Amino acid sequence: MKTVVHKANSRGHAYYGWLDSHFTFSFANYYDASRVHFGSLRVLNDDYIAGGGGFDQHPHDNMEIITIVTEGEIEHKDSMGHTQVIGPGEVQVMTAGTGIFHSEYNKSEDLPVKLLQIWIFPNRKNLSPRYDQKEFDMTKRHNTWQRLVSPDEPGTLMVNQSAWFSMTKLDANKSLSYQLHNPYHGLYIFILEGAAEMNGTLLEQRDGAGISGVAQVEILANKQSHILLMEIPMTA
């Protein structure tokens, strides 16, 4: 078993006025040779976008990009012709594949947007670009795992990778186990709110941790917690 813990205050950080972003893994001007990726998980950015702010059109390729909005609304426009608004409880998936351009702007001039942007390496390169999004009923993650992303499960958003993303809102002193689909996979857990133990390792708000070499994990909430769990292959 191997465990790596990334405390919230150890992350990379960029502040541009309209954007306050924390990077779990090396990104933009932040580089740490020990934190380039965890298996197929390449990017986990925790973004706060002020009212009226956003990312101008920019390119991506050969990456599966997952955006989870936790507060506010962001407007997405891309070179495939999509114009979509994503709000709390909604998740967006893009296959960048052979190449896309997109922009992301806070829909409000006054209220902030909070979101996670996550990149995972695809299982093959040069796929056709693809876009999808879905709203999830957040009441259905109370003390249980709510699946958001998978390779092929009905009711989830599909990604081109053997990856499963799940979220839970766990009451204090409640526990949940998670059984991996493949013993060669790893799990990365991110605490959006609260504090919880992963197989006895304490994680607090905005902490992350990766674990590999296990068949399952046990999550115990020390207080009411909102948790994202990502199962991914350990080969990048």
Key phrases:
236 residues; Jelly Rolls; 2 domains; seven-stranded antiparallel β-sheet; 55% strand; globular
Tell me what portion of residues adopts beta-strand conformation. over 45%
CATH topology grouping of the largest domain: Jelly Rolls
Order of helices and strands: EEEEEEEEEEEEEEEEEEEEEE
N-end to C-end Cα span: 19 Å
Mean pLDDT: 97
Q: In CATH's first tier, which class of the largest domain applies?
A: Mainly Beta
Number of domains: 2
Rg: 17 Å
* Largest sheet: number of strands, sense, barrel closure: 7 strands, mixed
Strand order of the largest sheet: 1-20-17-22-15-13-14
What does this structure look like?
With 236 residues, the protein is mostly beta strands. It folds into 2 domains: 12-135, Jelly Rolls, CATH 2.60.120.10; 138-233, Jelly Rolls (Sandwich). Helices cover 0% and strands 55% of the residues. It contains no helices and 22 strands. The strands form 4 sheets. A 7-stranded mixed β-sheet has the order 1-20-17-22-15-13-14, with no helix packed on it. It has a 7-stranded antiparallel β-sheet with strand order 2-3-4-11-6-9-12, with no helix packed on it. The radius of gyration is 17 Å and the shape is globular.
Question: What would a concise description of this structure say?
Answer:
By secondary structure, the chain is mainly beta.
List the helices and strands and how they pair.
Blueprint: E1 2-6, E2 12-15, E3 19-23, E4 41-49, E5 54-60, E6 64-71, E7 74-78, E8 83-86, E9 90-95, E10 100-106, E11 113-120, E12 130-135, E13 146-150, E14 157-158, E15 164-170, E16 175-179, E17 185-193, E18 195-198, E19 201-204, E20 208-212, E21 216-221, E22 225-233
Parallel strand pairs: 13-14
Antiparallel strand pairs: 1-20, 2-3, 3-4, 4-11, 5-10, 6-9, 6-11, 7-8, 7-10, 9-12, 13-15, 15-22, 16-21, 17-20, 17-22, 18-19, 18-21
